[in-house]
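Subject: mismatched residue count in predicted assembly?

I count 960 residues in my input, but I want to confirm that the predicted structure covers every chain. Input:
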Amino acid sequence: MHYIEGGWPGANPKDTELFARARDLDLGEAKLVAFGSTRRAGLPPEKDPCLSALLAADTPAVAVVGKSWTLHVDQVLRTSRKENLRMIADSVAFLKEREKEVIFDAEHFFDGFSEDPEYALATLEVAADAGADWLVLCDTNGGTLPWQVEKVVREVRREFPYVSLGIHAHNDCELAVANTLVAVQAGASLVQGTINGYGERCGNANLCSVIPNLQLKLGLEVLPKEKLRELTHLSYFVAELANLAPNPYQPYVGRAAFAHKGGIHVDALAKAPRSYRHIDPELVGNSDRVLVSELSGRTSILVKARELGEALSREEAARLLEEVKALEKKGFQFEAAEGSLSLLIRRARPDWRPPFELLDFLVLVEKRTGKEILSEATVKVKVGEEVIHTAAEGNGPVNALDRAIRKALIPFWPQLAHVRLTDYKVRILNGQAGTEATVRVLILASDGRRQWATVGSSPNIIEASWQALADSLEFPLVND
Amino acid sequence: MHYIEGGWPGANPKDTELFARARDLDLGEAKLVAFGSTRRAGLPPEKDPCLSALLAADTPAVAVVGKSWTLHVDQVLRTSRKENLRMIADSVAFLKEREKEVIFDAEHFFDGFSEDPEYALATLEVAADAGADWLVLCDTNGGTLPWQVEKVVREVRREFPYVSLGIHAHNDCELAVANTLVAVQAGASLVQGTINGYGERCGNANLCSVIPNLQLKLGLEVLPKEKLRELTHLSYFVAELANLAPNPYQPYVGRAAFAHKGGIHVDALAKAPRSYRHIDPELVGNSDRVLVSELSGRTSILVKARELGEALSREEAARLLEEVKALEKKGFQFEAAEGSLSLLIRRARPDWRPPFELLDFLVLVEKRTGKEILSEATVKVKVGEEVIHTAAEGNGPVNALDRAIRKALIPFWPQLAHVRLTDYKVRILNGQAGTEATVRVLILASDGRRQWATVGSSPNIIEASWQALADSLEFPLVND
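Triage response: the counts match. Full output below for your records.
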C-alpha cells in the first residue's frame, strides 16, 4: 500500500489518538495520510480548526475534500460558488506552504461534472494551481456507470495533462471495481479503496479485487509478486480485526473463489488447469478447493485424500464415495464441511483408532413457572481405557453438551481449551415435515491458527449437533 | 422475469422432479427453461440421454450449452473440432424440430474468442444456422474485463446482425454486473443472472443490481415500475429460501444501501434528497434507513391492526411499536411472522385472556450405547382453571414438545388436530458465538384453509421453538 488514510483528526478523540500513536509505527514504504475538509466559508485558513488538526496529525501527506457539485455548494454548504473555489485554493495552498503532499478529493465530481462541467473543472483547476499533488475524482454517491467514468476521466486527463489523477469509487451500483479499472485505463494512477470493500452503505472499491485485476489482468505492477501472495491472508486479517465474518464468495480471496464441484469440472481441471479457473489461485495466496458432494466423482475424493497426505487405492476411494453418497442422502453435506470429510478419509484407514468415543449422553431442558430455563447435559466419554462421566450446564441444550464434552476431554488434551466454535448453523432440510424435519448442523471452529468446518445430520437436533461437535473437537487431535 | 432456468433434467432426481412438478405451476409470463448440454460425441441426437431428458422436461424453452473454446474441445471433451461443431448443430436442430425455443449457451466464449476467434465464431454460426433463437456469450470462468466484453459482443453483433444475443457473466473479478451492462450496451438483449448473485464460486451476475441499473440508469424498461418496487422483498425472500443471511451491504436492496449516518448526511438529505443518494430507494422497494424506519413501523402496525379489526389509538400503536422494537432487539423478526405480530396486537387489548398457558415443561434427549436415541417431553398446561400434565415422545426434542402440547390441548379444541406445521426454520443470529448463539425459529402452520407464520427467539433453541410453537397453536384459536 502506498498511502494509508488514517481518519479525520479532530473529528473525534479516537481518530486524533490514532495519529498520535501512529508516529511510532514503521509503515515501511506506506505514507500515512490525514483526511479533512477545505476551510470553512469566510474563515482564514490559519484559523480553521480542521486545517489545524490536519497539521497537528503530523503526517507526510494530507487529503482534503472539497465540493465539486454546484448542488452541494448551493444547497448543502449554502455558500457562493466563488467562495467555494477560494476555500479549495486557500486550503491547498496553506498545506503546500507547510510542505505537505496534498491529495485533493473532489467530492461528487461525476455528479457535478454531469450537471455543470465547467464549474466542476474549475474546482480542479484552483486546486492544481494551488499546488495539489493529486486530483482525485470521487463518485461519492456511487451512482456513475463505467462508460461515464471513462469519458469524464479522459476529459480531465486532457484538461490537466501534468497533474496526477486519482479515482475514488463507491459500490452502490455494484460497479466500484469496474469504475476503478476504467479510470486507471483512462489515466488515473491513484486508486482509493478499502480491504474487502468495507465502507459506508454498499462499501468502497474493494482493493482485494482491484489489486489482482490491475496486476494480473492489466499487467500493471502494483505490488511485488510475493506481496500479492499475501492478499488472501490480508483479507482474513482485516475481517478478523473488523469482527466481520469473511465473505466466502469474495472474488480472488474468498474460500469459494476457486471451489470446484462435480465430477466434470474436477476432471477437466486435472486435464487442463486453465479450463475452469481464470488465474492460478496461488498468485493471490488462495488455493483450489475441491468440493465433494453426491454429484462428484471418485477423482475429487482422491484429490482431497492427496491434499491430506493419505494414499487411497482406487477401491478405497470408490468405497468412500459410496459412504459419502449414503451420508448425503441422510442429510450430511461435505461441500462446506471439509473437516468432517477429512476425518471420514482418515477413518477409512484399517489401523484407525478414534481419540475418544462418546458412549452415552443425556440432555435436559427444564422450565418451571417463575424460574429461569435450565439446560443441563451429562456425558459418558471413553478415552483409551478410561471412562469419564461428567455434566455441565449451558445457555441451551447444545451449549450444555458442548461444555460437558470439553470438560471430559480437556484433561487429556489441554489444547482443546483454545478451540473456539466460531460459527454454528442449523438448516432444516425438509421443512415441510414441521418439527419432525431432518436437521443439518454445520460448525466452524478455529484454534487461532486455522479453521475447520464439520457437519452432522439427524431428525434430532441434539444428535446432529453432537456429530458436528464431536468432529470439530476430533479434527485438531487427529491433525496435530 | 422472462425466463426461469429450472435445472438440468436427468442430472439428478431432484432436478427431474422439479420439471414434473412445475407443470402445474402458473408462472405468469415467465417461461420455464430446462438446461442441458449438446449431444455426446459420436451419438445420434435421438439416442442422446441428455437431449431426451430435455424433451421429457416438457418446457417451452431449453438452454443447451456447447463448447466454444478449442482448449476444452481438445483437452476436456477430447473430440475433434469438427465433431464439436456437428454436436452443436445436431442438438440445436433436434430441439428446433420439436418446436422448442432454443437458447444456445456458448461456454467459455470470451476465452475461446481470445485464443481462436474463428473457431469461437464458427460455434455460434452452426448454432444460428440450426435455428437457435438466442446466442448467449458466456464468461464461464469470470475472468474477462468490461472493455474486452464490449469489444467481443460488438464484433459478434456485427457478424450475426439478425440473431438475438445474450450475456452470461460470472463474478470472479467482481465485474459481473459491469460486464453484463456493457454487453447490453453493445447489443445483448438477454441477461442471465441470479437473485442476489448466488452461484458457484463468486456467483453469477446479480440481477438485484443488474435490473435497477438497466432500468434506472440506462432507461430500459426491464420490468413494470410496480414490479421493480418488489425487488428488495424478492431479494429477502430468496435469501430466506436459500437459508442464507441477507447481505446488508448489497447494492440497491441491502439494509445499509440507503443508510445515512451522522448529522451532516442526514441534514443534507433533508435539504436536498439527491445530495447523498444516487436514486430514490422506494423505486426498488427499499428505504432511507435513518429517516423513515420508525414512521413506517408505526404505519404498518396500524395497517395490520385495521386488517385484524382492532382499532388502536396512536398511543397504543406507539407503545406496541416500542414492544416490537424491544423484541426485535432480542432476535424476533415480525416481517416474516405476521401470525405472531397479530397475536401481539391482540394481547395489547386490556381485556385480553390467553386461551391457554404453558406452566412448565421438561424436555429430555437421551442416548445410551446400543440403543436408539430417545426424546421425551413433559408439559403442564393451564386451560381456564384446569391444569393438564402430560408427556409424549418424538423424533427430536422439539417434535416431542409439539406432540405433548397438542395432546394437552386437543381435548379442548379438536380443530387443532387439523393444524399441520408446514415449515420449521432455524436461523442462528450471531453464529460467531458458537453454540451459545441466539436462535430464531420461524414456524409456518396451516389448517388447510389458511397459513400463518410465527416466530420465537432465545439463546435456547427449545425455548425459541416453544415460543413459535405456542403462537402457531394459539393463532387459530384466537382467530376463529
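The two ends of chain B are 39 Å apart (CA to CA). Marking this ticket as 'not a bug'.
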